[in-house]
Specification:
Layout (H helix, E strand, L loop, with lengths): L13 H10 L1 H7 L11 E2 L6 E10 L5 H7 L6 E7 L6 E3 L1 H8 L6 E7 L2 H7 L3 E6 L11 E2 L3 E3 L2 E3 L4 E5 L2 E5 L4 H23 L4 H4 L3 H6 L6
Helix pairs in contact: 1-6, 2-6
Length: 224
């Protein structure tokens, strides 16, 4: 299906979204079985942002940002825009004015497998973006795409209403129907790490906490 705007999507409960955002990308990625991580080239335009939101997806043509403007109307509080070109492009699809429009609707940020510009103003206004590239190259508004359809963004399938978690470590997607379970698993992981942290602070070694010595010996490691 092409050139379609799906106006009604099922979103993840914001309580689950917000919980996942607090855990962060590394914990969520590990908790859900090391899946859902977008390609490592997806980097934040400024450091320190840690967010999560419901995915509103955009499929669009290379160097054409028309469908981002279309997508703004479909966004609401707690959403996060996910943009994927149909062919590789590093053009600067997104900047300050689009961010201002999205922010007015309560959108928490943008993940785009292409270029972003106006980094200074975006940083100043505190609108977080994770992008493949930074580029001042402009775009056109000529080709139709789609909004709120499944897209592949930076190597991962993203469905509308999935949870996107993003921070300095990258971006991870959590399936909408798995979100509650991943919250529980992430909390369990956090609790376990808190106990390990205390033991490390007390001077214990990871070699002993994780029971590594026997396995190292079995692999043939010798101390001389």
């Amino acid at each position: 299906m092409s050139a379609v705007v799906v106006q009604t999507i099922e979103r993840t409960d914001l309580n689950h979204v917000d919980a996942l955002g607090k855990f962060g990308v590394a914990t969520v990625h590990e908790a859900q079985g090391r899946k859902g991580l977008l390609a490592s080239f997806m980097r934040p335009i400024y450091s320190g942002a840690q967010i999560a939101g419901n995915a509103v997806t955009v499929s669009l043509a290379p160097a054409d940002n028309w469908m981002i403007h279309v997508a703004v109307e479909q966004c609401r509080e707690g959403d996060l825009l996910v943009v994927a070109p149909t062919s590789p492009s590093d053009a600067g699809y997104f900047g300050e004015l689009l961010a201002t429009s999205l922010a007015s609707r309560g959108v928490r940020g943008l993940v785009i497998a292409a270029g972003c510009r106006d980094v200074g103003p975006l940083t100043e206004m505190g609108f977080p973006v994770w992008s493949k590239a930074i580029s001042a190259q402009g775009t056109v508004k000529e080709t139709l795409g789609s909004v709120n359809v499944p897209v592949v963004c930076a190597g991962e399938l993203v469905n509308p209403g999935d949870v996107i978690v993003a921070d300095d470590d990258g971006v991870v997607v959590v399936r909408r129907d798995e979100a509650a379970d991943v919250v529980g698993k992430s909390q369990a992981r956090e609790d376990k790490e808190a106990q390990v942290r205390k033991r490390l602070q007390a001077g214990e070694l990871g070699l002993d906490i994780y029971g590594m010595r026997e396995k190292l010996a079995d692999k043939g490691l010798k101390y001389v």
